[in-house]
Amino acid sequence: MRKPRFIAGAVALLFLAAFAYGKVAEGVLDGVVLNGRGVPVAFAEVFWQAADGKAPHATRANGKGRFRIAGVSQGLYDLRAQASGMTSEWEHNVLVRSGKVSTVTLHLIRPKSSSSSRDKH
Question: Residue 121 falls within a domain, yes or no?
């Protein structure tokens, strides 16, 4: 009589393991937005998309310049931020793995002016 109970218990554990595995198929993008002096930038806008340029999204950093994007499918992503007339370079090919947290630091810079000193003479 113990054999059927053992088999039923083993099958139940297999179903639970398969269900739990399916729940961690997504990862997290976590990061901070900093200004040129290394100070966190509150409420900066953060743009992220798949590395192939598809499915663009936007979110905001919190009051301490931090952002956390949960439920991200495994793959490569590009991110950048902007605030107060400054923008960061694109951070390309950030790898997100299932069940893992990928951390990114985005540094805001002032845009370069389109005219050089030679154009003024």
Answer: no
Spatial contact of 47 and 81, defined as CB atoms under 8 Å apart:
yes
7 assigned to some structural domain? no
Regarding pTM above 0.85, the answer is: no
**Residue partners of 121: CB distance under 8 A and separation at least 6:** none
Domain of 66, CATH number, reads 2.60.40.10
**DSSP SS3 for 23:** helix
Task: State the distance between the two ends of the chain, measured CA to CA, in whole angstroms.
Answer: 97
35-54 burial code (b ≥16 CB/10 A, e <16): beeeeebeebbbbbbeeeee
Residue 1 domain flag: no
Q: Quick: pLDDT tens for 10-59.
A: 444 444 444 445 454 899 999 999 999 999 999 999 999 999 999 899 99
Sorted by sequence, the CB contacts under 8 Å of residue 75 that are 6+ apart come out as 50, 51, 95, 96
